[in-house]
Design goal:
Length: 112
């Protein structure tokens, strides 16, 4: 699942991962993503860190409670050491700084 409030990022990641034969669903808000996590299972979630309302860290924490086996990748254009450290300490498997390279996304997802 891809969770990002920016439609362009969601669509880019969805199209790219679908072209690699991954099944992908998307959510435009953190709460929408959490609702999906409650009702379905996901191998990997790629979520923006900074979203209005429910943040990527909130999604991460909810996913850890609801579906501990799900791998979480957080991404942000504000990749400060504090943000990265907080994400990893709370259980993110990877942090990707925007703008990202699609080859990097492919590599990270492939390793998880």
């Amino acid at each position: 699942m891809i969770i990002d409030d920016e439609a362009g990022i969601r669509d880019l990641l969805c199209d790219h991962l679908c072209s690699l034969n991954y099944e992908v669903c998307t959510a435009s808000k953190g709460q929408e993503g959490i609702d999906y996590i409650i009702n379905d299972s996901f191998d990997i979630i790629i979520s923006d860190l900074m979203m209005p309302g429910v943040s990527g860290l909130d999604v991460l924490e909810a996913s850890r409670r609801i579906s501990p086996a799900t791998k979480i990748i957080l991404m942000s254009g504000v990749g400060t050491v504090e943000n990265i450290g907080s994400a990893i300490n709370k259980g993110a498997h990877c942090f990707i700084k925007k703008p990202f390279d699609l080859d990097n996304i492919t590599e990270v997802v492939g390793k998880l």
